[in-house]
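Q: Hi! First time asking for a complex rather than a single chain. Here are the components, and I think there are two in total. Is that enough to go on?
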Amino acid sequence: MAGSNPNAKPMDLTLKIWRQKDRNTAGQLVTYPLKNISPDMSFLEMLDVLNEELLVRGEEPVAFDHDCREGICGMCSLFINGRAHGPERGTTTCQLHMRHFNHGDTITIEPWRAAAFPVHKDLIVDRSAFDRIQQAGGYVSVNTGGVPDANEIPIPKTIADKAFDAATCIGCGACVAACKNASAMLFVSAKVSQLAMLPQGKVEAKTRAENMVAQMDVEGFGACSNTGACAAECPVGISLDNIAMLNREYLGAKASSENV
Amino acid sequence: MNWFTKTFSSTIGRKIIMSITGLFLCSFLVVHLIGNLTLFKGDDGVTFNLYSHFMANNPIIRTMEIVLVLGFVFHIYDALVLTRRNKAARPVGYAENHPQENSTWSSRNMGLLGTVILVFLIIHLWNFFVPARFGAAGGLEGVVIENVDYDNLYLKVVQSFQIWWYVLIYVISMIALAYHLIHGFQSAFQSLGLTHKKYTPFIKTFGVVFSIAVCFGFAIIPIYFFFAA
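A: Yes, that's all I need. Here is the structure of the assembled complex.
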């Protein structure tokens, strides 16, 4: 393989993986020994190897979420050795490589834990609560018509940069998984402030903040204790400043919106 | 529910109440500490007893006492509601979890620290406030200052802090309060959305200095009277 390290020795691992048949069945951690894993593999490729072995043995493969495997889609998850997306900071599970583990390691792999993210099967959780929060207001309403000119509305560079930083949220749910309260504040704050900062988003800023927070509470996420665990574990580095902005937006909206 | 009750029963609304009451209780700590420092005047408690008499009888102070109690009630009530909600948000925990890698201990244990402070508060009120204000729990001895009778709260302070385990409870509680404030002070500004890159670094530093200074000021009182005896 191009770019692989010829000196890297294959490693043997012990995996403890959460297995759960479906939403209504109780699950448990099951131990799987796995041999001959290349340190150049990604974490998900390592799980692919395990699943191939399980299929050959006639066992049910481990179900886990994944899609782009490039760290941009937000589909992969996994709570690895007590950390969301594993031990490395600023990394999604698909971008985590086995060279960060050692020969002989035991690795515990669990799904995100939150009442709002029920386990579908094994390591897959239902994150549609995030979709419903987005549908409550995470958009800009645009009437149809001619295509507007690019850069028609001037936006200061500093504001554009901040909005873009918030927009990098991939909605993976690591913030909820890492938070001791399973709070979705970092996710919601990124979605709210991304649009609240831009002229196009300011039009609906008040109802957006009100409706998205209301939906967040309906979904059963916890409150924010400002521990900062979410931002520390966020694979794309969404800042806590967004949460302060959400608090500001929400209070301002509640005090002055037209919704009585 | 109307918009007002909806706002303050939302998770963000309750955190706003936690912040406002928390910062209000911080202002109370400052007033309380300044008053307590009269204990060090070295006049056998004359200034302290006159001060405590003023605090127990002045109508403005008595009104603020009600506001203070409400501050505690809302702070504690919302803490309980939020804690219940937060526990329910994760019914199944992790088999392996390393939160120390992403957050401070005090930020994760505000409820525990708050409970320690609440237990201390009950002991503290029973020891000083109840006898001084209501004459209950044995009441206080009298003292004559310039031909006027006053309650001798100073004597009660001196006597209480002869007991080693009492001093220990006070010191441990003040350590818990310091940790509670180190997270709580700056957290309140975050919850209120009062962050800015010009001011937030100062607020964070001030919060730590404030927490340690105030709690040290309170803790030194029992230690001083224990060793002065």
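A: Chain B has one domain: 12-86+108-228. Let me know if you'd like any chain examined more closely.
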